[in-house]
Specification:
320 residues; alpha/beta; two-stranded antiparallel ribbon; 8 helices; elongated
């Protein structure tokens, strides 16, 4: 094979080796061609280490090195993957149409876990229509561009807040499916990407704001006891989070018998005590479980072997 052919084949080969993160539409990540993954890291490392001296164009050599480095990163765990953009599809139900949500995810770091769309968010977004009987009366449902009314307790538009919205999947799904106002909140470091994702969806019934559970605003805060529905997905990552989360819920939840809280909790062995602490504190503030359920899934950053061990996730629906 001559050098010119190699110049053309190398970028093509690197493109075919791309591993895109799943959007949970299937349980399998499919490569365009079947390859022996055992030999791929060595192949890519060899390209990165090569001078590519036979390629005269500096810009082409740089593109090849960058592509090879990216393919290595995709095989080195979620924290090594550069920023990505992907589309999540929420399937249609009897009362809602299918929707697609485009999200940008910056590179993941230990300090900014909200830059990744976690499995719990996707499972909760998919389950929203099935939760309708348990939720505050939603003003309207959208189905094939037709609006059908649902009985309301009052004429005001239901107010929804998502705590720890991350990339915004759950909040955007609610706003797209129902005629409610959704306020998506998170820590300051997460807000720029969250705001960009919300703006990209272009929904007028959404807003974005900072909310630090460990440092809640005072009694003059506009969010105080405002929301009919509080949503949180995968919110526990430290021993302090149950205390902080319940304080945030108590701060924003409307003091009304129709108000609801929906929390999606991955059942991770490392956080069993935090989950129990959260449930105990929710009962302490006068909430009780109206419905719960479980669903199995896998985090999209897991290896093919790890996907065989699914993540069990439960939703906890509390009512006053």
């Amino acid at each position: 094979m001559d050098r010119g052919a190699q110049d053309n084949n190398l970028p093509c080969a690197l493109n075919q080796l791309q591993v895109k993160p799943s959007a949970w539409d299937s349980d399998v990540v499919v490569l365009s061609n079947v390859v022996d993954e055992a030999g791929v890291p060595g192949y890519l490392t060899g390209i990165v280490a090569s001078s590519l001296a036979w390629i005269p164009d500096d810009s082409i050599r740089e593109q090849i090195w960058e592509a090879a480095s990216a393919r290595l990163s995709e095989r080195s765990g979620r924290s090594a993957i550069p920023s990505v953009s992907r589309t999540f599809t929420i399937p249609a139900s009897e009362c809602t149409e299918a929707i697609s949500v485009n999200l940008h995810e910056p590179s993941l770091t230990a300090d900014n876990l909200g830059h990744k769309t976690w499995l719990a968010s996707f499972l909760l977004a998919k389950r929203l229509p099935s939760l309708i009987p348990h939720l505050p009366p939603l003003a309207r449902r959208r189905r094939s561009n037709k609006i059908s009314s649902i009985p309301k307790i009052n004429d005001s538009c239901p107010q929804v807040i998502e705590l720890g919205a991350g990339t915004g999947l759950v909040g955007l799904a609610i706003a797209a499916l129902f005629d409610v106002h959704v306020h998506l909140t998170d820590l300051p470091a997460i807000i720029p990407n969250l705001r960009a994702n919300v703006a990209d969806k272009g929904l007028e019934n959404t807003s974005v704001g900072e909310l630090d559970w460990s440092n809640l605003p005072d009694s003059q805060d506009e969010n105080l006891h405002t929301y009919d529905l509080v949503i949180a997905a995968d919110p526990l990552y430290s021993a302090e989070h149950p205390t902080w989360l319940v304080a945030a819920i108590e701060h924003v939840l409307k003091q009304d018998s129709t108000s609801r809280v929906v929390i999606e909790l991955p059942l991770r062995e490392a956080y069993v005590s935090e989950v129990e602490d959260l449930k105990r504190r929710l009962r302490g503030m006068g909430l009780y479980m109206e419905a719960d359920g479980q669903e199995n899934g896998f985090e999209d950053w897991q290896s093919a072997q790890e996907r065989n061990a699914r993540t069990e996730t439960t939703h906890y629906l509390a009512t006053q």
